[in-house]
Amino acid sequence: MATSITRRRFVQQATAATALAGLPLVRAGAQVRFSSYPFKLGVSSGDPAPDGFVIWTRLAPEPFEPEQLGTTAYEVDWEVAEDAGFQRIASAGRSLALAHLAHSIHVEVTGLQPGRDYHYRFRLGRYESPPGRALTLPAAGETPALRFALGSCAHYEHGFFAAYRYMAADRPDLILGLGDYIYEDGYGNRRVRLFHRREAITLADYRNRYAEYQVDPDLQAAHAACPWLVTWDDHEVDNDYAALTSEHELCGGPSSREAFVERRAAAYQAWYEHMPVRQSRLRAAGGVTVYGAFDWGSAARLYLLDTRQYRSAQACAREPTPATCDTEAGRKLLFVGAGGGRLVGLTDPACRPQLEDPSRTMLGAAQEDWLDTALTGERCRWNLLAYGTPFAPIYEGTPEAPLVFTDGWSAYPVARQRLLDTLVRHRTTNPVMMTGDLHAFFVSEVRDQRGRTLTSELVTSSIANSNTNKSGVLHLNPHIRYHEWEHSGYTLCEVEGGRMRADMVGVDDIRDPRTARQVLASFEFEDGNPIPRRIDA
Ligand code: CA
Questions:
Q1: For residue 179, how far is its CA from the centre of ligand 1 (angstroms)?
Q2: How far is the CA of 9 from the centre of ligand 1 (A)?
Q3: Per the CB 3.0–4.6 Å rule, which of 432, 466, 469, 491 could disulfide with 485?
């Protein structure tokens, strides 16, 4: 098998390079002994293709003392089987866990059959990882049903991750992470558990944060259940950041731009180290390519968009005051409220020219070009766009003077319209838009500037977070067809032929790890109709 030869050669070369670099190396099969079980962060799979997927783990016998492993490289064995008992091995090999990537392992498994389940695990000496289930994408032309779950906004301090456990129990084909997988910081006073450390700034901080999340058994269950497709939002780095502009950029301050460049690169590296994604996503100069498309045969194409890394800064930022800008306590910069999102008047003469500046972008030119090409490719019946921040507006204020939040797509009206124009130009069939971010469930019609409904947007609530109640402004937003703000949870979707169904699943109490769940509402999308129909009531 050419692929395993390539893999073997890669490991041999990497092993040789490690030896040349003078780094200590523990070979597979050696009698290695750690202070504790090294697979405490579990396993995961992602970036599926018709012939394979990525399988991931990270050696972390002491998850919060990673320096304990030093610079030693470890050879880790992995195997992929057709059966849960690992009797029929489909592929196996050896991969290196290297210190400069926090001893994470991203194996790009190839040579598998399309459209079927596999099971995988890792081994190092006498230690064996828990098993995970992965699957390959169906081949082009095939149209099997697709079940997938949507999750976003998991604040570890605000709640337990029962929603992830229930998601895993549903055995979906794929889980889509829509952003705010971690939170860089704590806030609020209703906490059920506490972060070990303060706000994440350095690479060590972000690694620590991911480790805190990934030792959680409910999150591990969701990762082991099926491949994840992952995009991100702001909290993987910093609240409301935009490209290289931090929430605090306008404060200036000593090297704030330079400090944020370094901070973002650290956060992105930690994201790569802890996500089941391909190495080709790593970019020079501290970038990571998050956007991409995945075809479920010819039934559905899933587009993951990155609405953070390339966007223009939020319009109409408030002027910082000296009081908010010159305090530095330890490493934590107390620059409050200078940049980031806020409510502004759509018709405010001071703000409007900025909002409507045609040079402002949400996706960036390269991603827009990529999306344009992806939308012209082989046709899939359903075209599902997933991203980190809401597309349908939520107007506040009054009908005469509507306000919008500057962090969402509605405050990037030219870029927003450009995306809708692209869908229309390509006659994209059955587009459905999907996000999280808002800590509440929404189903909204997505209308163009002329008021035509072109598609709809599903917003899934938080996995665990304080809720957002927008019921007081629904009269200003007749395009919002459903809003439920009292529950955290997830959304379970099923695409089958000309139908797509979405069940909004709420958990009763995020403060109770054993909490119950319930389906709050169900919607059905029909081929050719951009407006979904509620089917449970
Ligand atoms: Ca967010």
A1: 7
A2: 42
A3: 469
Is residue 44 within a helix (H) or strand (E), and if so which, with residue range? Answer: strand 43-49
CA pair distance 246, 320, nearest whole angstrom: 13
Instruction: Tell how far the Cα of 487 is from the centroid of ligand 1, in angstroms.
Output: 17
Convert the pLDDT of each residue in 220-245 to its tens digit: 999 999 999 999 999 999 999 999 98
- State the number of CA atoms in the 13 A half-sphere of 284 facing the CB: 0
How close is the Cα of 310 to the center of ligand 1, in Å? 15
CA 401 to centroid of ligand 1, rounded, Å? 25
Give the closest residue to 287 by CA, choosing from 258, 303, 255, 310: 310
> pTM higher than 0.90, yes or no?
yes
Residue 253: per-residue pLDDT: 52
Q: What is the pLDDT at residue 17? A: 60
pLDDT lower than 70: segments of the chain: 1-20, 249-255, 320-339
pLDDT of residue 96: 96
Summarize pLDDT for 58-82 with one digit per residue, the tens: 999 999 999 999 999 999 999 999 9
CA–centroid distance, 459 to ligand 1, in Å, is 12
* Residues in Cβ contact with 358 at an 8 Å cutoff, skipping those fewer than 6 apart: 414
Q: What pLDDT was estimated at residue 6?
A: 47
Cα separation, 483 vs 150, in Å, equals 17
Bridging pattern class, strands 127-128 and 117-124: antiparallel
What the chain holds in terms of domains, given with CATH numbers, is 1-139 (2.60.40.380), 148-534 (3.60.21.70)
DSSP letter, residue 376: H
In the reported structure, the alpha carbon of residue 313 is separated from the centroid of ligand 1 by a whole-number distance in angstroms of: 15
The whole-number pLDDT of residue 197 equals: 81
Q: Residue 227 has what pLDDT? A: 98
CA–CA–CA angle 402, 405, 406 (5° rounding): 115
How far, in Å, from the CA of 121 to the mean position of ligand 1?
Answer: 33
Distances (CA, A) of 300 to 89, 140, 406, 432: 30, 10, 32, 11
Dist. CA 332 → ligand 1 center (Å):
20
Between CA 431 and CA 293 the distance in angstroms is: 14
CA of 180 to the centre of ligand 1 (A): 6
Q: In angstroms, rounded to a whole number, what is the distance separating the alpha carbons of residues 214 and 186? A: 17
Cα 296 to averaged position of ligand 1 atoms, centre (Å) = 27
**318 Cα–ligand 1 center, Å:** 19
Task: Measure 334 CA to ligand 1 centroid, in angstroms.
Answer: 20
SS3 for 307?
coil
Give distance in angstroms: CA of 392 to centre of ligand 1: 15
Using the mean position of ligand 1's atoms as its centre, give its distance from the Cα of residue 390 in Å.
9
Please give the pLDDT value at position 457. 98
Inter-CA distances, 522 with 151, 156, 487, 493, 518, Å: 16, 28, 15, 10, 11
CA of 488 to the centre of ligand 1 (A): 15
* CA dist., res. 375 & res. 391, Å (int): 18
Two tokens, residue 528: 């050719």
